[in-house]
Amino acid sequence: MRRKLSGGSSRRAPMGGRCGCGAMRAAVRTGWRIGAAAALRGQAGRPFSQAAGESGGAEGGGGSGSREAVERLVREHPVVVFMKGSPAQPLCGFSNAVVQILRLHGVEDYRAHDVLQDPDLRQGIKNYSNWPTIPQVYLNGEFVGGCDILLQMHQNGDLVEELKKLGIRSALLDAEKDQEKK
Amino acid sequence: MPGPLLAAAGGGPLARTIRAKLTEALQPTHLEVRDDSPRHGGPPGAETHFGVLVVSGRFAGLPLLQRHRLVHEALRAELAGPLHALQVIARTPQQWESDPHAPPAPPCLGGSKREQRRRDREEEEAAPGQQ
């Protein structure tokens, strides 16, 4: 693996994208779809509270950032990640770390939502979990934490156990077995 | 390469605020505040990305999520404002004693222009001509 695992999580970029993630340019290039969240946009829904200066992308307001919409997303799949960019092309080091950790455990089938594509979702997910930063990892619909926590869970073996509870066998278990044989 | 560790009285205004608030909220036995902003494409003194290592007895018995929430709570105003990213390591004094090492600062793996150019160069070297 070329890149080192890292801790930390990042918040939405202040005006001007000061986080330096080059989000706008890359987002246009990637065109990552956010699946269910995109389908929910434009639905009549009560406007979700927006931080000043954060213009919602949807015409109708905060539909995709509403509690109900987010609830649906986190329950979509045993493993759901809200990140910047996509698993194929993460746009932030902390989001990338989450992707790399999941990959190490052989978890390739999961739902990833690019919050850069949806400002309503970006704010909505933070309100939902009462957590200020992205990435956010949900296992079985439950918020587990950001990049730091996932990294520690990976390092202390908790992640293997949590995946097992979801019926997912971590690839690292097989890797260990191979090592023992050698 | 780790970012600069800020001495107790040093660092920019945000670093000092972070330090003061965490001290007041969590009475840490050990506290490190690291300004990673320059490593994320920001200019020197940007104070946007920080990492904190907090060792406090208040974390005893709390799962990681709750520990991090305590830290976030202490820095609520900053996180709603200029603090763009925050790495958190939260340990009890016992944990810190048995492993007094902080993980290195996270490298910027983001899509900043500088990083993208570097990645493009690497990919070109690895597989010239491939998309």
From TrEMBL, chain A:
Glutaredoxin domain: residues covered: 79-144
SUPFAM superfamilies hit by this protein: Thioredoxin-like
GO cellular component, one term: mitochondrial matrix
Residue span of region Disordered: 45-68
Sequence ranges of Gly residues compositional bias: 54-65
GO molecular function: 2 iron, 2 sulfur cluster binding; metal ion binding
Gene3D superfamilies given in the database record: Glutaredoxin
Pfam families in alphabetical order: Glutaredoxin
Sorted UniProt keywords: 2Fe-2S, Iron, Iron-sulfur, Metal-binding, Redox-active center
InterPro entries the record matches: Glutaredoxin, GRX_PICOT-like, Monothiol_GRX-rel, Thioredoxin-like_sf
PANTHER family in the record: GLUTAREDOXIN FAMILY MEMBER, GLUTAREDOXIN-RELATED PROTEIN 5, MITOCHONDRIAL
Name of the protein this chain belongs to: Glutaredoxin-related protein 5, mitochondrial
Automatic annotation (TrEMBL), chain B:
Gene3D superfamilies tied to this protein: Phosphatidylinositol 3-kinase Catalytic Subunit, Chain A, domain 1 (3.10.20.90)
Chain intervals with Basic and acidic residues compositional bias: 112-121
Record GO cellular component, one term: mitochondrion
Disordered: annotated segments: 28-48, 94-131
UniProt biased composition (Acidic residues): 122-131
Recorded family membership: Belongs to the BolA/IbaG family.
Protein name: BolA family member 1
The organism of origin for this protein: Cyanoderma ruficeps (rufous-capped babbler)
Lineage per the UniProt record: Eukaryota, Metazoa, Chordata, Craniata, Vertebrata
